[in-house]
Design goal:
Keywords: Membrane, Transmembrane, Transmembrane helix. 76% of the residues lie in helices and 6% in strands. It is mainly α. It contains 6 helices and 2 strands; from the N terminus they run αββααααα. The two termini are 26 Å apart. The radius of gyration is 17 Å and the shape is globular.
Length: 140
């Protein structure tokens, strides 16, 4: 009984972390000259619904990483018992994209971009910490 309760709590924590990772990724800001500023969710909306040549733009590796990361986080949230390798690969892909956002913010000295990545970094760090703490990282 106690083991089942512990597993249920771990599963809920995993889902909360996945929701946090997904929402904080969508809240990252991208800026480039001259005076262009978008959140990630705005860019995704434009890419999916306002772009005519969608197939040409979806084959870019950065966009494929973001799409796979999104789908894996959504799978983690929806699934009753998500597979850990899907959850981990999605969080790693989204972390790589946020690292690119952070580096471009650091190189351009853009404080908005840097600060918008901090929630993602904190939530994903919490996820990786709990993953390590529980020694749950057994990918089969």
């Amino acid at each position: 009984m106690i083991v089942l309760r512990y597993i249920r709590i771990q599963n809920e924590m995993t889902k909360l972390n996945a929701i946090g990772i997904l929402v904080s990724f969508l809240g990252c800001i991208l800026e480039w000259p001259p005076n262009n500023s978008y959140y990630v969710f705005q860019l995704e909306y434009q890419l999916l619904f306002e772009t005519k040549g969608i197939l040409k733009s979806l084959v870019h590796p950065v966009l494929l990483a973001g799409i796979f990361g999104h789908f894996s986080m959504i799978y983690t949230i929806i699934s009753k018992n998500p597979k850990q390798w899907i959850e981990l690969s999605g969080s790693i892909l989204l972390s790589a994209l946020v690292a690119l956002f952070l580096l471009s913010g650091l190189f351009s000295k853009n404080s908005k971009m840097i600060l918008s990545t901090l929630p993602f970094i904190l939530i994903s760090s919490n996820y990786y910490y709990h993953l390590y703490k529980n020694k749950k990282l057994k990918i089969n």
